Amino acid sequence: AALAGVVEYRNVTFAYPGAESPVLSNISFTARPGQTVAIIGSTGAGKTSLLSLLPRLYDPVEGEVLLDGVPVSRLDRAEITKRVALVPQRPYLFSGTIEHNLRFGKSEATDRELWDALRVAQGESFVRDKKNGLDARIAQGGTNVSGGQRQRLCIARALVTKPRVYLFDDSFSALDVATDARLRAALKQTTADATVIIVAQRVSTITEADQILVLDNGRIVDRGTHEELLETSPTYQEIVES
Ligand code: DUT
Ligand code: MG
Questions:
Q1: Deepest of 27, 69, 92, 184, by most Cβ within 10 A of its Cβ?
Q2: Shortest-distance atom of ligand 1 to CA 52
Q3: For residue 101, is it left (φ>0), alpha (ψ between -120 and 50) or beta?
Q4: Ligand 1 atom showing the smallest separation from residue 45 Cα
Q5: For the complex shown, is ipTM > 0.90?
Q6: How far apart, in whole angstroms, are the C-alpha atoms of residue 199 and residue 44?
Q7: How far apart are the first and last CA of the chain?
Q8: CATH number (domain holding residue 32)
Q9: What is the Cα–Cα distance from 150 to 141, expressed in whole angstroms?
Q10: What is the pLDDT of residue 75?
Q11: 209 in a domain, yes or no?
């Protein structure tokens, strides 16, 4: 159970270095293995900032982020990276082959594991269609693949590391609705025992989440399941209708 992947934010307040006002105030929630916690809220609400505190891209100014009961401030980044995979909002690909890009973070993965990850991420067919397959070149910044392909390669990269915790920051926005649905169905199976925290724009992506946190101006203003929030949260209703 030591490597279970329980994530807890405890009264977390965060301001960017040098900034006066916090972008996150008094954030508390727990996400457990087997659960999906979704974060929704308008642009600038603080969703990306919230995710960034778990892999310690930044540290809170107050409160604590805990991984399996241990404050992440006591863990080094390499240790966190083994257990937590963040798929960033602007997925990053570097100059090199598809294989290099997928192995980034877990160099000892087998080809079989790379293809398994691509299959789940709905990237298998476009990689297979490339003349050189896994050896096909990616340009710096991934400029020679589409935004949706970039997202799928970055999701596959996260899957290759087989983490206990997945953080998806708006990772499905560049996908068409059908691919989005297929990918999420496949992910649901693969990540069934993991802890999943997902930032989403489309409500359809998160209706099945165990808990949805509605973030507004750096605060969790409402929380609950999709059905509960439809009844209780005007902010959520606005998002659903938008
Ligand atoms: N912010 C900074 N510095 C940064 C990043 C963000 O000051 O390096 C500010 C901008 C914004 C707030 O923090 O006022 C929250 O930004 P965040 O990127 O966390 O918002 P979001 O909810 O992820 O917005 P979006 O839906 O546009 O991705
Ligand atoms: Mg964001």
A1: 27
A2: 19
A3: alpha
A4: 22
A5: yes
A6: 13
A7: 41
A8: 3.40.50.300
A9: 9
A10: 94
A11: yes
Residue 48 predicted with pLDDT over 50: yes
Ligand 1 pocket test: pick from 12, 14, 21, 23 the residue with the most ligand atoms within 8 Å of its Cβ. 23
The verdict on the CB of residue 49 being under 6 Å from ligand 1 is yes
Flag whether 2 is in a domain.
no
Looking at the CA of 88, which ligand is closest?
A: 2
**Residues constituting the chain:** 242
Question: For ligand 1, is residue 201 a contact (CB within 6 Å)?
Answer: no
Give the tens place of pLDDT for each residue, 93-123.
Answer: 999 999 999 998 677 899 999 999 999 999 9
* Nearest CA, atom 18, ligand 1: 48
Q: What is the pLDDT of residues 161-188, one digit of tens each?
A: 999 999 999 998 888 889 989 999 999 9
Nearest-CA residue for ligand 1 atom 11 is 44
Tokens of 93: 């690909």
Q: What percent of the chain has pLDDT over 90?
A: 81
Provide the number of structural domains found in the chain: 1
Q: Which structure tokens are listed for 220?
A: 């969790």
